[in-house]
């Protein structure tokens, strides 16, 4: 196994172009486990830890450019107000040690349906900045997950950053595991309200071959909110609407039975999480509206 | 070396600092917390090779051929061994039956069974070479439960058995069967106003010790071998290793290395023989260390069990009778199954007075992973079932579950179903009273912080699944009974060698035993005992090895009792010798040397009145007292194979728990808020260690209640051999564990102490499940309880 340690981003891109099968490693929290379990024996490991800019983030007018290696701990500590859904998801990633090492770039690179960041990224919306010696392209997050542990990257591309819109409304993230910390998701759900565009976005983890959105549920809820004038009047969402939303989220999932949980439990739990997170986000939205009016 | 009886009625004073009863700190504590402790996986030797074990991917298969040529041809490979390469006709080993092949002999009987060994100059080279060994398997039908084990056409997994139970078992796929009949359950059932029955199931729990199996074998110049290894019982290993190697026991020199937990999982051999074989074959030191994945295949697990129970009771709440049948899945090899059967049957009644019982326990041979010793050892499975039954009975009678238990609780003088009279304190009702009397944790603790819910106090924790929605509190109680020490007539002894001499002007005691310190704190306690008995401050604990007599296993809650007892016994003999020297040297200077009861305290010989007679340094000047003695607990008897009657257990241990849980009834997630425990420990030699043991055992029981299970598929394959999918409690899953310690002396035991390590593991599980039932109203007859069970999905 060759171990390449590029000193700069340009060197890293050149190395990836030269060794398209090279597996990038940053925090190593996925890659090292796969190597330890002998699930993967890459010919070449491409160590990105010397590239400091991958660990930096920039908060712009409307978006956050989050370097691929910014640790989950950094996200929790520094970007809670800009990226609340991702910050909540980051809290559920493994243990403190792993949160200190791992970043969103790794989750995206592995593209496991169980990656904790995905539901939050899908709910937020955003773009993955994929770079190669050929240039840079922005891949919408909705088009990034293409199969079981497969993503839309070309073999010569590396993830430089993700560009996420700063939250314009409440966001929530909820994850079921069979212990109260340090657990791989049995299933997970991300929800973001986007009052500016009066849209809803969702993300489902560990309940389909890839992370997915529950688009029918989103469309239903957006229409129901619009029809009832809820964005303006800030009324409590009727239980029937919440129930229907929950059912549509459940229905969007395509889970399997495995050692972590049954398919029917995953569907059931997603419905519960959808209903609860909707309640929490909407309460927050109403609270914000009220305090805005008072001010 | 015979048993020497030395006076035990002398009350050594507690003047000496760091003696028994103090919470002296353990020497390994800081090192372990800071990561500096040297575990067996850290062993290193110049020029050493790395061993690797090729394991079977099949649960049951005939091996048609093995081709090792390609592996042997690989650069860096020094040896490849299969069954055909074993040096003697002794090719099997085992704790109770010699039924486990060192390397598979033409057939594999479980997923992960060792088939071949490789030694290479790098672990990765060894692993790759092993992958090049070509094994031609012909899969065979799989035995995976009682029905398939006893079916007419069931494959007989061990044809031609010659173990000591072979003639008595009803079927060759039954490892051992122990019935217990006392009174007349049929007749007594007629008196019952209510009868409840239930079928219960316990999943396969793993010891999940953090230090994987590892050790280093170094070939000796005399043709022998030095083995450094993490184990639970050096001399038991030795007895099994030496014949396979074709060496006399004195040429296999074993030294205990840093042990990262055991919980029963190191009673059976893992890599010991394999490393020795490779070292003797190559003439080089060989290290083997399993990774976590391999560790799940490298040791036995807790027996999964199915248990059928029937109890009756009169309207006023007295239990009339009990019938039960316990089926334990022993897996492919016997391991400790026979003794586990003995425990499960003899403790199946629980800590209750029931005169009329019909009990049967069996262990099966199957193609599932071998199961054997784990903390609680057969009593855990039974406790989950009988405590579930107690709740059912109380409910049916409309009685408070604690009062109902207290009404039927055993006490000193109670006759066990085996006919044994319990002849030391058995404060079962009192433990229940104490645990119930503890203040309850406040309701809705997640609201304590203010506006936002503190998710850490809620089911799901930081996974943020509820802010209080769907959460219901439940409270449950349970109590259990565990035997201490080896039972059923086993000649249970331990050995201690104690030296006392002056080093640098100070009296220093050296305590040498073969006790495996697996984290339980034995070395701390040995030093405390030596200080108390010999009145010294400086105690050196010699590394545990086979240069001293056997200490028996660090299991069965027995080491403080047994090796602690042995250290005390030898110290007493040393003290007698010291006083004899003192009398010889100084007896003429003071009449008290001849007339008074003399003690050793704070480096002096003193009278029982406290008058100092001489400095220990002066007595020991030019002398070394060095004594090694064996020490035994009082003998026990085997259980009658038909009636189960017999004085089978030397001591019993009791703990009670109250569990308080918050259950997210919609998502089926559980947060255990508090697990209060009351336990009688006889005498707390080190109160801090006692508390640690109780909290650790409690947490392990919680793990079984809500998360820990090795999932074995219908075709007998292990599906979750990793800490990703075999979950053990994290600190966020661990509740507050208030501990109430009772010290009622057992007059038969050293210092009156009671073995404590296992009892808290028993009652913790049913208490948690009882609390979940209280919160959900569900029957929940299986552990671990999964979210699917609570949500009906």
Automatic annotation (TrEMBL), chain A:
Q: What is this protein called?
A: Xanthine dehydrogenase family protein subunit M
RNA-binding: present as a keyword of the record?
A: no
Which organism does this record belong to? Streptomyces humicola
Instruction: List, alphabetically, the SMART domains matched.
Output: CO_deh_flav_C
Q: Which SUPFAM superfamilies match?
A: CO dehydrogenase flavoprotein C-terminal domain-like, FAD-binding/transporter-associated domain-like
Where does the UniProt annotation place the signal sequence?
Answer: none
Q: What positions does the domain FAD-binding PCMH-type occupy? A: 1-169
Keyword annotations for this protein, in alphabetical order, are: FAD, Flavoprotein, Oxidoreductase
Superkingdom to which the source organism belongs = Bacteria
State the PROSITE patterns in the record.
Answer: FAD_PCMH
From TrEMBL, chain B:
Keywords for the protein's UniProt record, in alphabetical order: Oxidoreductase
Tell me where in this chain the Aldehyde oxidase/xanthine dehydrogenase a/b hammerhead domain is found.
Answer: 34-141
Q: Which InterPro entries match?
A: Ald_Oxase/Xan_DH_a/b, Ald_Oxase/Xan_DH_a/b_sf, Ald_Oxase/xanthine_DH-like, AldOxase/xan_DH_MoCoBD1, AldOxase/xan_DH_MoCoBD2, AldOxase/xan_DH_Mopterin-bd_sf, Xanthine_dehydrogenase_dsu
Q: What class of enzyme is it?
A: oxidoreductase
Q: Does the keyword Oxidoreductase apply?
A: yes
- For bias kind Polar residues, which ranges apply? 1-15
SUPFAM superfamilies, alphabetized: CO dehydrogenase molybdoprotein N-domain-like (SSF54665), Molybdenum cofactor-binding domain (SSF56003)
Q: Where is this region: Disordered?
A: 1-27
Q: Which GO terms describe its molecular function?
A: xanthine dehydrogenase activity
Q: What is its EC number?
A: 1.17.1.4
Read off the PANTHER family from this record.
XANTHINE DEHYDROGENASE, XANTHINE DEHYDROGENASE SUBUNIT D-RELATED
Protein name (database record):
Xanthine dehydrogenase subunit D
């Amino acid at each position: 196994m060759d171990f390449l340690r590029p000193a700069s981003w340009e060197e890293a891109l050149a190395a990836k172009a030269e060794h398209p099968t090279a597996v990038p490693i940053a925090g190593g929290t996925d890659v090292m486990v796969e190597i330890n379990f002998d699930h993967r024996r890459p010919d070449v490991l491409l160590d990105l830890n010397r590239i400091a800019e991958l660990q930096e983030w920039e908060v712009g007018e409307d978006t956050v450019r989050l370097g691929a290696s910014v640790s989950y701990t950094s996200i929790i500590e520094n970007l809670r107000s800009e990226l609340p859904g991702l910050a909540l998801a980051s809290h559920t990633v493994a243990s403190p040690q792993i949160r200190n090492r791992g970043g969103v770039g790794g989750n995206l690179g592995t593209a496991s349906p169980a990656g904790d960041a995905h539901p939050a990224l899908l709910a937020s919306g955003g773009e993955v900045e994929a770079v190669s010696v050929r240039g840079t392209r922005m891949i919408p997050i909705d088009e990034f997950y293409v199969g079981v542990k497969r993503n839309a990257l070309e073999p010569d591309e590396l993830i430089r950053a993700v560009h996420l819109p700063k939250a314009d409304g409440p966001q929530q993230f909820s994850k079921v595991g069979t212990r109260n910390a340090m657990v791989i998701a049995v299933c997970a759900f991300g929800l973001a309200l986007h009052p500016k565009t009066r849209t809803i976005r969702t993300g489902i983890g560990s309940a389909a071959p890839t992370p997915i959105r529950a688009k029918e549920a989103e469309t239903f809820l957006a229409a129901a909110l619009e029809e009832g004038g809820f964005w303006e009047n800030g009324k409590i969402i009727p239980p029937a609407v919440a129930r229907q939303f929950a059912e549509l989220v459940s229905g969007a999932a395509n889970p399997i039975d495995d050692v972590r949980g049954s398919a029917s439990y995953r569907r059931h739990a997603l419905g519960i999480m959808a209903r609860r997170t909707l309640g929490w986000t909407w309460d927050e939205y109403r609270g914000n509206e009220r305090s805005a009016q008072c001010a | 070396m015979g048993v020497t009886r030395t006076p035990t009625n002398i009350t050594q004073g507690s003047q000496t600092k760091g003696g028994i009863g103090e919470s002296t700190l353990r020497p390994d504590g800081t090192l372990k917390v800071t990561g500096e402790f040297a575990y067996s996986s850290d062993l290193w030797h110049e020029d050493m090779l790395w061993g690797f074990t090729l394991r079977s991917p099949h649960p049951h298969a005939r091996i048609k051929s093995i081709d090792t040529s390609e592996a042997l041809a690989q650069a860096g490979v020094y040896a490849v061994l299969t069954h055909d390469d074993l040096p003697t006709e002794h090719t099997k080993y085992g704790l109770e039956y010699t039924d486990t092949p060192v390397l598979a002999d033409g057939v594999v009987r479980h997923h992960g069974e060792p088939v071949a060994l490789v030694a290479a100059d790098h672990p990765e080279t060894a692993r790759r070479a092993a992958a090049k060994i070509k094994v031609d398997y012909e899969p065979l039908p799989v035995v995976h439960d009682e029905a398939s084990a006893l079916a007419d056409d069931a494959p007989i997994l061990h044809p031609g058995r010659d173990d000591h139970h072979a003639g008595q078992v009803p079927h060759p796929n039954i490892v051992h069967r122990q019935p217990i009949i006392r009174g007349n359950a049929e007749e007594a059932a007629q008196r019952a106003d209510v009868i409840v029955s239930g079928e219960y199931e316990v999943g396969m729990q793993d010891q999940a010790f953090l230090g994987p199996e590892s050790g280093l074998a170094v070939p000796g110049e005399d043709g022998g071998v030095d083995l450094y290894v993490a184990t639970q019982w050096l001399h038991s290993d030795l007895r099994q290793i030496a014949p396979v190697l074709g060496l006399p026991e004195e040429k296999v020199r074993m030294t205990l290395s840093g042990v990262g937990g055991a919980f029963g999982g190191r009673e059976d051999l893992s890599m010991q023989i394999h490393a020795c074989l490779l070292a003797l074959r190559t003439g080089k030191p060989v290290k083997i260390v399993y990774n976590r994945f391999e560790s799940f295949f490298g040791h036995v697990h807790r027996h999964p069990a199915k248990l059928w129970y029937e109890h009756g009771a009169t309207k006023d709440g007295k239990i009339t009778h009990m019938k039960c049948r316990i089926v334990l899945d022993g897996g492919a090899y016997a391991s400790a199954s026979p003794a586990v059967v003995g425990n499960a049957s003899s403790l199946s009644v629980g800590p209750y007075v029931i005169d009329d019982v019909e009990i049967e326990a069996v262990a099966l041979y199957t193609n599932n992973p071998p199961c054997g010793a784990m903390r609680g050892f057969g009593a855990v499975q039974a406790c989950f079932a009988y405590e579930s039954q107690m709740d059912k009975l109380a409910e049916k009678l409309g009685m408070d579950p604690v009062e109902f238990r207290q009404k039927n609780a055993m006490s000193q003088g109670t006759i066990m179903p085996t006919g044994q009279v319990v002849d030391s304190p058995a404060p079962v009702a009192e433990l229940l009273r104490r645990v119930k009397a503890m203040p309850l944790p406040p309701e809705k603790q997640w609201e304590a912080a203010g506006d936002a819910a503190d998710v850490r106090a809620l089911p799901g924790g930081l996974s943020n699944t509820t802010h209080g929605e769907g959460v219901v509190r439940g409270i449950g109680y349970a109590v259990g009974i565990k035997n201490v020490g080896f039972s059923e007539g086993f000649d249970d002894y331990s050995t201690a060698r104690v030296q006392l001499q002056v080093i640098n002007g100070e009296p220093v005691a050296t305590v040498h035993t073969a006790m495996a310190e697996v984290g339980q704190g034995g070395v701390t306690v040995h030093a405390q005992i030596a200080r108390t008995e010999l009145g010294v401050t400086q105690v050196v604990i010699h590394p545990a090895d086979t240069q001293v007599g056997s200490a028996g296993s660090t299991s069965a809650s027995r080491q403080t009792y047994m090796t602690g007892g042995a250290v005390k016994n030898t110290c007493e003999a040393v003290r007698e010798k010291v006083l004899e020297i003192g009398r010889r040297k100084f007896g003429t200077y003071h009449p008290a040397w001849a007339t008074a009861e003399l003690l050793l305290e704070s480096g002096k010989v003193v009278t029982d009145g406290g008058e100092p007679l001489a400095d220990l340094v002066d007595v020991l000047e030019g002398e070394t007292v060095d004594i090694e003695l064996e020490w035994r607990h009082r003998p026990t008897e085997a259980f009658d194979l038909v009636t189960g009657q017999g004085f089978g257990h030397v001591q019993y241990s009791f703990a009670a728990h109250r569990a308080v849980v918050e259950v997210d009834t919609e998502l089926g997630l559980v947060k255990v808020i508090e697990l209060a425990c009351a336990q009688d420990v006889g005498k707390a030699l080190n109160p801090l260690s006692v508390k640690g043991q109780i909290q650790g055992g409690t947490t392990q029981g919680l793990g079984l209640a809500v998360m820990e299970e090795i999932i074995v598929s219908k075709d007998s394959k292990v599906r979750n051999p990793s800490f990703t999918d075999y979950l053990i409690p994290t600190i966020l899953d661990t509740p507050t564990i208030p501990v109430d310690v009772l010290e009622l002396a057992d007059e038969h035991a050293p210092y009156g102490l009671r073995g404590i390590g296992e009892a808290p593991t028993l009652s913790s599980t049913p208490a948690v499940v009882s609390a979940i039932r209280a919160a959900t109203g569900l029957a929940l007859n299986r552990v671990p309880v999964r979210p699917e069970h609570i949500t009906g999905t």
